[in-house]
Amino acid sequence: MENKTAQQKSQADLLVEAQQRKQNQFRMGAGATWGVLLLVLIFLFSGKTVLGFETIQLDTEFMRENIVFIGSGLGQTLLISILSISLAICLALLAALGRLSTFPPVFALSTFYVSLIRGTPLYLQIFFFFLALPQLGIILSGLMAGVLALGLNYGAYMSETFRAALSSVGKGQREAATALGMTPLQTMKRIILPQALRFAIPPMGNDFISMTKDSALVAATGFVHEVLWRATKVGRAQFNSLEALLMAAIFYWLMTLVLTFFQTRLEARLAKGDR
Amino acid sequence: MAPIVRVSSLDKYFGRLHVLKNISLDVQPREVVCLIGRSGSGKSTLLRCINFLEEPSNGSIQVDGVTVESHGRGKEHRQLIHDVRLKTGMVFQEFNLFPHMSVLENVIEGPVTVKGMNRAEAISLAEENLDSVGMLFKKDEYPMRLSGGQKQRVAIARALTMQPRVMLFDEPTSALDPELIGEVLNVMKKVAKDGMTMLVVTHEMGFAREVADRVLVLGEGEIIEDAKPSALFSKPKDPRTKALIDRYRTGGR
User: Fold this and answer.
1) pTM given for the model
2) Inter-chain CB proximity A275 and B110 less than 8 Å
3) In terms of CB atoms within 10 Å, which of A37, A99, B162, B198 comes out highest?
4) Quick one: what percent of chain B has pLDDT higher than 90?
């Protein structure tokens, strides 16, 4: 008996091992290809001539001089993103709950908000808060206008994610909580939301990453000194836009890589109970 | 003896469908009552009306001295429903364990969140009940990793840990693989033996015959027979009861 289970286990282990080996091979292959693609990209901008093929020559002196100036916009970019995503999450949750409400005015308020915001360009919304509101005596800083516009905009889109996530929790869960004597609020907080959030985290992560890049639109107000604003400023002034924008692109890319890493970790942590 | 559950003139409509027709029913303390009937006979709905998972259309429910009328409104009414729910534990066909919580967290959730019991006290009570359903060894596991029978035993422990006066079972073994039914029925027998008042909607005729003090047969929203299992299974009065019993006999259970 003892022997038999030991044998079965080792067979299961063998299968797992084989699976892991396959996975590792795949990962190594994919990683190597990434490396090659990166090298090709770097080579394209290296300025070297190989076999008569001329690559792009960058003004490295300009890049060295301005990397700190452009990079110090990262703080502003992150600040806008974090403030906006916080606002967006609150609005999205309210809108999603409103969308699921059986009370007509609440439902209407939610759908009206989502429709209005999704029906107009983000770029317009940023300018509306920054340029149009002062006409009504409401003056917002570039940062405030940007955060409000981004928050409202992403809130509208994310509300659909939240709604789907909330609906994905079966009605048996609500009934079990109700039968235990939980109030609707307790049921929402303790039972429905934690399960819904798990569904919502991957798309929310996507939205956050997407938002860090859309935060560049706030540069258009001319008063928020984030990465893109700095890149265009020095690029135009010294006719080095190629270098300046390349550096900005790399900063954005690195930022999304870091965020993606954290998103993956968070997803793994939230997946407990699914194992 | 005063009944612990009293259902008086209960009606339930789903739209124009009249699913429960003027049902009245008394259950004595420590009594085990099985509700049987074909699907659509209203037996689950009757059970769900007792703890107001379904709002009755007419009539009233009384559990352990708390009376709730249908058509009630407002804060007082909600408080009465809450009181009734605290006095009733419910076990569902689909278990409905909370998948994001471990077994132990599932079981202490009610006492801690609803009753405000302190955590340590809830844990010791929960462990006691998990032990009595034979699931203490899985207390840190998540529901995903349990078999159906194990999930249902945890669900029973979860309901018991609220220390209800009455337990409601809504087809507790219908979603289980046949070889897992026995372990759940055994736990239910134990709960009955410990003196719990139980209302059980079931298709398990063997369980009804062995454990029930009374068997109610529902048909088209009415109680068509109410008898001791020995009498009911040997000499059914209503032809519909006879047909029902025969069907299970030929079905093997």
Assistant:
1) 0.80
2) no
3) B162
4) 83
